[in-house]
Write a structure and sequence with these properties.
Layout lengths: L12 H13 L4 H13 L3 H12 L14
Length: 71
């Protein structure tokens, strides 16, 4: 059995709500999404290197508390 580490993260509500909708549509939980992203991020392939560059250089936009993400 794989060992797992419990973590807590805080995510902007509108962003999480948008993820939940897409997650349901694509049968993807936040746990599965995070595990996949971390796996790609720490991998030793050119895809991982590109993904790391994207993540490392991405600036999280400030979301409005009244608006919705991606609308």
């Amino acid at each position: 059995m794989k060992s797992k580490t419990a973590t807590t993260v805080k995510i902007e509500k509108n962003l999480y709500d948008s993820f939940k909708i897409l997650g349901i549509q694509n049968n993807l939980t936040l746990q599965t999404f995070v595990e996949k992203c971390v796996h790609i991020y720490v991998g030793n392939t050119s895809v991982s290197s590109s993904f790391r560059d994207i993540v490392n250089n991405f600036v999280v936009p400030v979301l409005s508390t009244t608006g919705s993400f991606g609308a």
